[in-house]
């Protein structure tokens, strides 16, 4: 029997992460999928739903409680996996957040908005990788993925080739709908983390990518799916299938770069 690849996906109880698990369950390849979630209850609910969607699969799913803004939680998750499996073949840093809606509702300050966003999207993803790299290096084919965004491209932003809100009227502060500055800046920082780690791991046989799935209906930023759809968002399954395809070798010729579902390399 073919040994199952062990794939850990953070934030996998909803959105793109959930769809990635679904795509892996439907693959011809067998996997052990570690479904990461901050809540064991939500992880189990997601697994129940996934098993109903794909009742016949050669893969297995295991719930993994991990909160990427807590070192203690990450360490506990690593110990659990180390004791049971001893390795991870792929780490998908999917968990991410956008808190602009909380700031606009007056629930957090602008500084809190920035710090909270960076803690999840940059520090959380980096520390998750930092703690799990020893287990990843135990794999014969280690793969490392960061979910980034088309909005993170410095070249695209400066040249106006990516989707941006209209220029607001003069004056400060600005009151721009969907002004996701904190999210955009955090994902640009995450891209540098990818570049730096890819360089550091040159001699460790680790294949690393940033994946830019595009505007999808995921519930990110508390945006209702109907509103996202009116903005041109695609189905979250696009991102899940994309992750599965990269894990199975589709973008091995673009290691160390940011790629989108069309196979195009995103400008830094």
From TrEMBL:
GO molecular function: oxidoreductase activity
Homology family: Belongs to the short-chain dehydrogenases/reductases (SDR) family.
GO terms (BP aspect): secondary metabolic process
Entry-linked SUPFAM superfamilies: NAD(P)-binding Rossmann-fold domains
Matches recorded under InterPro entries: Fungal_SecMetab_SDRs, NAD(P)-bd_dom_sf, SDR_fam
Protein name as catalogued: Ketoreductase (KR) domain-containing protein
Database matches in PANTHER family: CHAIN DEHYDROGENASE, PUTATIVE (AFU_ORTHOLOGUE AFUA_5G01530)-RELATED, SHORT-CHAIN DEHYDROGENASE/REDUCTASE
One GO CC term, this protein: cytoplasm
Native species: Penicillium steckii
Domain of life, source organism: Eukaryota
